[in-house]
Write a structure and sequence with these properties.
Order of helices and strands: HHHHHHHEEEHHHHH
Shape: globular
Distance between the termini: 34 Å
Strand content: under 5%
CATH architecture of the largest domain: Orthogonal Bundle
Radius of gyration: 23 Å
CATH class of the largest domain: Mainly Alpha
Number of strands: 3
Number of domains: 2
Structural class: mainly alpha
CATH topology of the largest domain: hpI Integrase, Chain A
Length: 315
Amino acid sequence: MTAPRPRSPQPKQVDAGIFQAEISSFALRLAAEGKAAKTIRTYTEAVQWFAATHLPGRASWEQVDSQDIQQWMAWLLDRRYSSAYASNQYRALQQFFKWLAAEDELPDPMDRLQPPRVTDKLVPVFTGEELTRLEHACAGRSFAQRRDTAIIAVFRATGIRLSELAGLRYDPGDPRCSDIDLRQREITVRGKGGKDRIARIGHQAARSLDRYIRARSRHPQAWRPQLWLGAGNREPLTAAGICQLITRRGRQCGVEAYPHRFRHHFSHTWLDRGGPEGDLMELNGWASPQMLRRYGASARSARARRTYDRIMTDT
């Protein structure tokens, strides 16, 4: 299975013209509220794209009405962007116009609109055989092999976000500056909005991390606070670097692998095995039950298929 993607990527550099001043102020407000840098970028890029594409000839935000928003959604869907992607663009605009209405005392053109209906899709999860192939692709004693094995093991055991895994710190001399506690099998994760939470790992993931940390101690840049270091004398891995290595390991063994698929797999497995929904929300750092509904549907589907095999046996 492949990750759901829009037909083509959203332009990263667009000219919002006379509308840029308000967009910049909106970004400042989001930053003051403690929103993550990625969230701020996603929201502002969506508003910039809307302004550059659908507001030529307009003199001010006051001239924007609900029909403009509806035309923008129709434009996205007509160009085969997914309904989930269009919905995300809608919610970014919704936050902007809510802020603008309060800031400049303007009418909110989205006040009575509804977001595009998102088509539910089954969550892509790994098979046991695929996970085994990934483990074998990283097998070995080299620094990169120990590191990649540990990264995959932590992803599999926790389902944490890519940015959260990339941001992990390690300092063997000061536990207060380290996010890894192998004795307790716990990882301190900094989630969205700077909120910390504790993620638990199993014994296998702890062993993989221990092997990597021992290899890390001999690395030329072991003094750095980032947990994940580059091979050789390279600098620590960024989120993009981790994403690339996961994709590369997947290609080596013929598995469609990307970081977020591990999050899907973890959540699906938890619910499929009867894990409490509230505990999953805590472990995943979810503030809203919306994601639970997605993963719950996937787990229910898996349970229903197993029930079929038990009940509808050939006689």
